[in-house]
């Protein structure tokens, strides 16, 4: 697993909840939301293999030709489940049997409903590639991953419940009653927001929300990526402030246009001559249009892999004719709206970090 710089815990978080592999305290947060990595030393008692993923209602489009690049050290296009970053607030990974799972939808709806897992699995299923990003992702950090998710459209379920006029927010709660709030508009605007049951062709791993989690493209996880979801209350922003909003994070959290250098590593030593600089860029639900690399004072266009969906990252590379000495390398991306990521350096709070990922290399 690729790890970024460990972000600090937002104000008000009980640090005793957050344990790292070594047993030391770490900043960890909600479902791809605000923090680091969480582990459980409990044995899993639920067998995820009992869930059988069926055929999707629409055959997924094959990955476009040239959507993946073969560069040593570059993040793979699909992040393996075992290497996908984790963030959550549960001290131990929840053990939820599909037979007991239910999703309650209530609040500002005409037809409150409770959906069982069997009923969910009878809904039309789709596959969609989405890159998830944690809001505490530092510039150049590792709290980001791309997967092919299988699930049913959340918008279709909410339409059946009958959203009422004036509804602004869906407060989602997990099995431990942790809450996050997502705006109604991005869930209902046609993007592929889903109740996901599968990840990269397998049932959801327990650490990633088995048996059901929420995936909303284009939004940081602290407002959208509720794992082990069991409750959705439709309401307004004025009526309820979700957990992280109470702690100073923004109510609505579109992911910023960003990019990262994977190779070479910072402070690496390389041999003079042809050196491949490569990495990933993302602008979820807008799409990446172009990537530029800065070496020693000049910006140069990079070669960018084919776009899969506008909800995924794009790999890129640039072949540099490296000369001996110390060199500074930066990267920046431009999304399909024409916006180029800013050079202004800002920390994650309250709405995501900004700046250019910058590395230094020595050429011998």
Describe the protein's architecture and organization:
Helices cover 7% and strands 32% of the residues. The protein is mainly beta and 364 residues long. It has 2 domains: 15-42 and 76-246, Oxidoreductase, molybdopterin-binding domain (Sulfite Oxidase, Chain A, domain 2); 258-363, Immunoglobulin-like (Sandwich).
Summarize the amount of helix as a percent range.
under 10%
Mind telling me which CATH architecture of the largest domain this is? Alpha-Beta Complex
Any idea how many domains?
A: 2
What is the alpha-carbon Rg in Å? 21 Å
Do you know the CATH topology of the largest domain?
Sulfite Oxidase, Chain A, domain 2
Query: Which range does the strand content fall in?
Result: 25-35%
Distance between the termini: 30 Å
**Strand/helix succession:** EEHEEHEEHEEEHEHEEEEEEEEE
In total, the number of strands is 19
> Can you identify the CATH superfamily of the largest domain?
Oxidoreductase, molybdopterin-binding domain
Low-confidence stretches: 1-41
Strands side by side in the biggest sheet: 2-1-10-5-6
Q: What is the count of DSSP helices, taking H or I runs of 4+ residues? A: 5
Structural class: mainly beta
Q: Roughly what is the average pLDDT, rounded to an integer?
A: 89
* Shape estimate: elongated
* CATH classification, class level of the largest domain: Alpha Beta
Give a short account of the largest sheet.
Answer: 5 strands, mixed
């Amino acid at each position: 697993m690729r790890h970024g710089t460990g972000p600090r815990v937002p104000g008000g978080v009980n640090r005793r909840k957050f344990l790292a592999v070594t047993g030391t305290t770490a900043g960890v947060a909600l479902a791809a939301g605000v923090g680091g990595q969480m582990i459980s030393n409990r044995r899993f008692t639920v067998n995820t293999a009992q869930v059988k993923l069926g055929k999707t209602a629409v055959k997924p489009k094959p990955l476009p030709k040239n959507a993946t690049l073969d560069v040593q050290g570059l993040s793979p296009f699909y992040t393996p489940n075992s290497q996908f970053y984790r963030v959550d607030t549960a001290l131990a990974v929840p053990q939820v049997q599909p037979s007991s799972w239910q999703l309650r939808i209530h609040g500002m709806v005409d037809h409150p409903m409770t959906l069982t897992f069997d009923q969910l699995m009878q809904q039309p299923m789709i596959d969609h590639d989405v890159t998830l990003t944690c809001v505490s992702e530092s510039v150049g950090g590792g709290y980001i991953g791309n997967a092919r998710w299988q699930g049913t459209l959340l918008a279709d379920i909410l339409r059946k419940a009958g959203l009422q006029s004036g509804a602004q927010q869906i407060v989602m709660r997990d099995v431990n009653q942790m809450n996050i709030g997502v705006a109604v508009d991005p869930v209902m605007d046609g993007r592929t927001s889903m109740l996901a049951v599968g990840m990269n062709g397998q049932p959801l791993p327990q650490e990633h929300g088995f048996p059901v989690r929420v995936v909303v493209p284009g939004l940081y996880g602290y407002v959208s990526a509720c794992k082990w979801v069991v409750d959705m209350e439709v309401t307004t922003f004025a009526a309820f402030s979700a957990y992280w909003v109470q702690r100073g994070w923004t109510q609505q959290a579109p992911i910023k246009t960003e990019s990262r250098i994977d190779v070479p590593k910072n402070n690496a030593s390389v041999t003079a001559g042809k050196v491949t600089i490569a990495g990933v860029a993302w602008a979820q639900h807008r799409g990446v249009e172009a990537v530029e690399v800065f070496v020693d004072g000049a910006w140069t266009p990079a070669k960018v892999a084919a776009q899969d969906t506008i909800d995924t990252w794009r790999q890129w590379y640039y072949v540099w004719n490296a000369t001996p000495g110390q060199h500074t390398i930066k990267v920046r991306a431009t999304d399909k709206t024409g916006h180029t990521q800013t050079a202004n350096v800002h920390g994650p709070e309250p709405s995501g970090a900004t700046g250019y990922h910058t590395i230094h290399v020595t050429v011998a």
